[in-house]
Design a protein that fits this description.
The complex is a heterodimer of chains A (116) and B (206). Chain A is of the alpha+beta class and 116 residues long. Chain A has one domain. Chain A is built from three helices and six strands, in the order E-H-E-H-E-H-E-E-E. In chain A, helix 1 packs across helix 2. Chain A is globular. Chain B has a single domain, classed as Rossmann fold, CATH 3.40.50. Chain B is 38% helix and 21% strand. The longest helix of chain B has 21 residues. The mean pLDDT of chain B is 89. The chains are: A alpha+beta (116), B alpha/beta (206).
Chain lengths: 116, 206
């Protein structure tokens, strides 16, 4: 069975970085075949920009990404406060779609099916 | 911005404009173009988009201007925008499976990626959106969440369309459970079932 490279990335890696930089760092790793688990998850605006940034990179060898974020569907006051203080939004999993076959989710869990 | 959102809610869905732009959003294959065609045909006599079984058939934003609709005693005018389906991946091999040669499939994949970028850019310009979901599929996908999250963040009025209710596998309740904050209109773009309900929901807020 082929190995999968899964990298868990601490929130502090992206501290003080603009969204564009965060997306670039993530896509650079994903293009190398890594599956990332981000402690500091993407916001919906960052996910939109991630999709937008992925599209020009798509080629024969890189068909795109699978991404999913586990976060509160309707943010409460506590999570808004955490967000305002620069805290984590939730957990994001992102990987190349030729390795991450499917991510299913519900509000409380993510299920990832990956393989070569 | 909560105050902006609250204000736009109070102001009403479309701010009582004479004409507004309504974007059809969703994942590829949800039935956006079939819906766009039915609406356009019914109110203008002409279809607006090409429909096929091949994914990413719509690879550019297709616009039909000044569609005048009457519903519930209200008449309003809108520009209907049929958006390319939004996806996180576009694999040329999926097109090869439909019978295309590799070169044509790669060209189509390239066009599809450009269409996705265009649809995403339009998220910031539409006045309202119909977010179309295939009721036979799991609605709780990251693409649907991302589309809705971005529209909600801008205070854009949204109506969810649960399409393909003519199919036995359709589960409208799953869409309602996944996105309880939005109105869900179950329809069949294929048979035309329940289309007046779409116009009603738009008219209510026009």
């Amino acid at each position: 069975m082929a190995n999968l490279n899964i990298e868990f990335v601490a929130a502090r890696v992206f501290e003080g970085k603009a969204s564009e930089e965060k997306i670039k760092i993530v896509l650079d790793s994903v293009k190398k075949g890594k599956i990332l688990v981000l402690e500091s998850g993407f916001t919906v605006a960052e996910e939109r920009d991630l999709i937008k940034a992925t599209m020009p990179l798509i080629s024969k060898g890189f068909p795109g990404i699978e991404v999913s974020t586990l976060s509160q569907p309707t943010p409460d006051l506590k999570s808004l406060l955490i967000k305002a203080l620069g805290g984590s939004q939730g957990l994001t999993i992102v990987g190349p779609s030729n390795l991450v076959k499917k991510i299913t989710k519900d509000p409380t869990k993510l299920n990832v099916i990956a393989g070569k | 911005m909560p105050f902006r959102k609250f204000f736009s809610w109070i102001k009403g869905f479309f701010g009582h404009r004479k004409s507004f732009s309504l974007g059809l959003y969703g994942q590829p294959g949800a039935g956006k173009s079939t819906i766009a065609n039915r609406i356009a045909k019914e109110w203008t006599g002409e279809e607006m988009s090409t429909v096929s079984e091949v994914p990413h058939e719509t690879r550019q934003v297709v616009k039909k201007e000044q569609i005048v609709i009457s519903s519930n005693g209200k008449t309003f005018s809108m520009n209907l925008l049929d958006m390319p389906g939004i996806a996180t991946k576009v694999d040329y091999k999926d097109f090869v499976k439909t019978g295309m040669n590799a070169k044509k499939a790669q060209t189509r994949a390239r066009e599809a990626t450009k269409g996705i970028i265009e649809a995403i850019k339009w998220l910031e310009h539409v006045d309202a959106a119909l977010v179309v979901m295939d009721a036979t599929e799991d609605p709780y996908t990251q693409v649907n969440i991302t589309i809705l999250g971005n529209l909600e963040a801008r205070g854009i009025p949204v109506i969810l369309i649960a399409n393909k209710i003519d199919l036995k596998k359709a589960r409208v309740d799953k869409i309602k459970d996944a996105f309880p904050q939005h109105v869900v209109v179950p329809i069949s773009a294929l048979t035309g079932e329940n289309f007046p309900k779409i116009y009603e929901e738009i008219a209510k807020r026009a």
